[in-house]
Design a protein that fits this description.
The complex is a heterodimer of chains A (463) and B (298).
Chain A (H helix, E strand, L loop, with lengths): L1 H10 L2 H19 L8 E5 L2 H17 L5 E5 L2 H14 L6 E5 L3 H4 L13 H6 L2 H4 L9 E2 L2 E2 L2 E2 L5 E6 H6 L10 H8 L15 E4 L6 H9 L16 H14 L6 E2 L6 H8 L3 E7 H10 L7 E5 L16 E5 L6 H12 L2 H11 L26 H8 L12 H21 L5 H25 L9
Parallel strand pairs in A: 1-2, 1-3, 8-9, 8-10
Antiparallel strand pairs in A: 3-12, 4-5, 6-12, 7-10, 7-11
Chain B lengths: L9 H28 L2 E3 L5 E3 L3 H7 L2 H32 L7 H9 L1 H17 L5 H9 L9 H4 L1 H26 L3 H9 L4 H29 L3 H6 L15 H11 L3 H28 L5
Antiparallel strand pairs in B: 1-2
Helix pairs in contact in B: 1-13, 2-13, 3-8, 3-10, 3-12, 4-8, 5-8, 8-10, 9-10, 10-13, 12-13
Classes of the chains: A alpha/beta (463), B mainly alpha (298).
Chain lengths: 463, 298
């Protein structure tokens, strides 16, 4: 031994020896670092406002379950999605409860049912009567192949916020407005050039065709859909052709009635503040945002149900949506289910969610809470909670599909092309746009169907 | 004097081993795995199905992929044609011996490259927005008949992206070219001037050959970054996940990201990634071949 040590001593100089020793010591040190571990149940949510609400009800859970305290963490949407999908795909650690937004659900549901990373809640929901206790439409985005994988957080009915100060001063009685045609007929006289430059500065409605938000909201209201109940694409239906062609004439051409104002952007808020639109399509959370982000407009806006697409038609639509599900990796599914119900079904949470964010709960038992009848000072004393809840049962279903975001993207592109054509060729008659709408929708349908067919996990064929 | 003791041959490998281990784990293995993925359909590592060439066939027949290829080529070509001449022009300007405030100009032109694509994308988006964007609002103030809703971003998708990219990167390329210009022999330029060569001939026959190696590297870098562009269109057209109106901003890497991480189809995304890799290798080889054959001195 002494001989070999001496030989080693000869070949390894002291400098090399020090570096080696440092490498070994630091490697051992890193290996021995204690892993970060939080006791109890973990929940990840992507919205700070949601987390604030959950933290109101967490103490009561922790009091009852001292051995299994609940800890809710805030992760930004993309970070949450990346970590969630890593957990589902590769088994990296994820929270027991995960909250996701509707557009994040696609990849989650793209695999075989047995491998989806969330626990199937269908039987529990049936057994405990929650299927009937929660607004039915709210389950649809979280349902795939007849199985429900999440508890819905919201309903997100849509109404129209209109500038009551201007509309009422013009003598317009909105209670007589039943359809969109009625609405535009009534509001068109208020389309005006405020700065004398020969151009309209105030439009009847916000309409964002740069993305698909408005198109999707109106399409769902008008009875269109992107997928059937079995998840097969239904883009090129006659209803969709009609809707897209008509909408394009709202966005461009001689009969244009909208301004590209996105309420979710700062520039959109500035335009609303400047009075560039008389009406804004607002789901419940956007009405809540207006109160916070546009306080200077308090008393100038009122809400009304969306004008119907056709006489006697639906007076609302739906936009966005969130769910919370249980990760399959959780060691105790029953405990996680109890915690999930504690977070999502709590009357206190429902109340706070409405007061802080304007969001109405899908839990029917909480709908009788008088907080929803409280007059809103911002919206001229209207009981906006009750108004949104009255529309909740009419919210359209949205059959889910792993390919929903791709379908929406195609829908937005088509609407954009139609609107540009209407503007460039000065087309005001939807009938002239229908052939192109049909052709584009058929191509999108074919393309999407080919994608679905390629998915061997959804029963597609491997060609 | 201490005698030189040669180290045994395994010592270099010992010190290279941390890098080699990490390289194998975090570079070689993922590359190999992505090649395998390209022939599979997966839902996580436990659920996979071998699909042979299906992903490549599907990519080949996918109109969105070809739209992305067309847009990427347009962007790359556009940036190449705008960025390099602009950078060269700025560098020539900065290289003028009697220029006053050289340091301030250098800082001014170079500073955009510090901020990165995300900020540049946001900035240009705000600049070009309808009605409240600085460009539309400014033009409307000066020319009252200017339409404040002029849709720069919707109608000039690629132009907007190329301008934003040029604004961001031209200063960075200028710094390289300026260094190259300062190494061009003054004696040669003086000799050419004495021989009666005008400014254009001096530039063409002395300056340009002098900075050619740097120019070649910049062209290759611009080509590679152009083919890999993702963040700029993604920020610009965030509402549509980087697609832009009618998919005019959709690039190859944006499409790869969308299929892999939005739609969760990692096999398909890997196939796109490998096609892009092959294209880039081909581009680099073509560049090498062209620059070698056209330079008789090498």
């Amino acid at each position: 031994m002494p001989t070999s040590f001496a030989a080693m001593r000869r070949t390894v100089s002291s400098g090399i020896g020090i570096m080696l020793a440092l490498a070994v010591v630091s490697s051992i040190g890193i290996a021995l670092l204690p892993a970060h571990h939080t006791a109890g149940l973990q929940a990840w949510a992507f919205d700070a406002g949601h987390v604030d609400v959950y933290n109101l009800v967490v103490p009561s859970w922790n009091q009852r379950h001292p051995d299994h305290p609940l800890n809710v963490s805030l992760l930004l949407g993309p970070a949450l999605q990346t970590r969630m999908m890593s957990g589902f795909y590769a088994g990296t650690p994820v929270a027991d409860l995960l909250e996701i937004e509707r557009m994040q659900a696609g990849p989650v549901f793209a695999g075989p049912l047995a491998d989806i990373g969330f626990v199937d809640l269908t039987d529990r929901l049936r057994r405990e009567g929650l299927i009937d206790g929660i607004n039915a439409a709210s389950f649809s985005p979280w349902t795939t192949r007849g199985h429900i994988f999440g508890l819905p957080h919201d309903v997100h009915p849509v109404m129209l916020a209109y500038r009551c100060d201007l509309v009422e001063a013009a003598g317009i009685d909105v209670s007589k407005i039943e359809t969109w045609d009625d609405y535009f007929r009534a509001m068109r006289p208020l389309m005006r050039d405020t700065d004398g430059d020969g151009r309209v500065d105030c439009y009847p409605l916000n309409g964002t065709y740069a993305n698909s938000t408005t198109t999707e909201v109106i399409m769902l209201q008008a009875g269109g859909t992107l997928f059937d109940d079995h998840g097969q694409p239904l883009l090129d239906s006659d209803v969709n052709v009609d809707i897209l062609a008509r909408l394009a004439t709202w966005f461009g051409g001689p009969n244009r009635v909208t301004l590209d104002v996105n309420i979710a952007s700062k520039s959109g808020l500035m335009l609303i503040h400047a009075g560039a639109v008389l009406g804004v399509i607002v789901p419940d959370f956007s009405a809540g945002s207006m109160v916070v982000l546009l306080p200077m407009l308090a008393g100038k806006y009122k809400l009304m149900p969306l004008p119907a697409w056709e006489k006697g038609g639906r007076r609302t639509s739906v936009q966005g949506g969130t769910m919370m599900g249980i990760a399959r990796s959780t060691p105790d599914v029953d405990l996680a289910w109890a915690a999930l119900k504690h977070l999502y079904l709590s009357p206190l949470g429902a109340e706070r969610l409405f007061l802080d964010r304007g969001i109405v709960t899908p839990v029917k038992a909480s709908w009788s809470n008088p907080v929803f009848d409280r007059p809103s000072a911002y919206f001229c004393g209207q009981p906006i909670g009750r108004m949104y809840l009255r529309l909740a049962p009419d919210v359209p279903l949205r059959p889910s599909s792993p390919y929903y975001s791709q379908a929406i993207n195609r829908l937005g592109n088509i609407e954009n092309e139609l609107a540009n054509l209407a503007a460039d060729k000065n087309i005001g008659d939807p009938a002239e746009l229908k052939p192109l709408a049909r052709r584009l929708l058929a191509a999108a349908q074919q393309d999407l169907q080919a994608q679905i067919n390629r998915n061997v996990f959804l029963g597609g064929r491997s060609r | 004097m201490k005698s030189f003791r040669p180290h045994p041959p395994w010592i270099p490998w010992l010190f290279l081993s941390p890098f080699l281990v990490f390289f194998a784990l975090f570079a070689s293995w993922p590359v190999a795995r992505s090649l395998m993925l390209a022939f599979e359909q997966t839902y996580g590592p436990r659920t996979k199905a071998f699909v042979g060439l299906l992903n490549f066939q599907a990519v080949w027949h996918d109109p969105y992929f070809w739209t992305a290829v067309r847009n990427t080529l347009l962007f790359t070509g556009g940036t190449l044609l705008v960025q390099i001449p602009l950078a060269l022009g700025l560098a020539l300007l900065m290289n003028r011996p009697r220029l006053r405030g050289r340091a301030a100009f250098r800082l001014l032109f170079f500073s955009p490259s510090i901020i990165g694509f995300v900020f540049a994308g946001t900035l240009f988006f705000l600049l070009l927005e309808k009605r409240i964007g600085l460009l539309n609002a400014g033009l409307h103030t000066v020319f009252s008949h200017w339409d404040p809703d002029f849709p720069w971003i919707d109608h000039y998708v690629m132009t907007s992206l190329i301008i934003a990219s040029a604004w961001l990167s031209a200063g960075f390329h200028m710094a390289y070219l300026l260094a190259a210009l300062q190494n061009v022999s003054g004696d040669l330029l003086d000799a050419a001037a004495i021989d009666g060569a005008g400014p254009w001939r001096r530039f063409w026959h002395v300056t340009l050959p002098g900075i050619r190696p740097v120019l070649e590297v910049l062209v290759l870098l611009t080509l590679i970054t152009g083919f890999q562009v993702f963040d700029l269109p993604f920020i610009f057209y965030n509402d549509s996940m980087g697609n832009g109106p009618n998919n005019q901003a959709l690039t190859i890497v944006t499409y790869l990201y969308q299929t892999g991480f939005i739609a969760g189809n990692l096999g398909y995304a890997s196939a796109i990634g490998w096609l892009l890799t092959l294209a880039l290798i081909g581009l680099a080889l073509a560049h090498r071949h062209l620059t070698r054959t056209e330079d008789p001195s090498r």
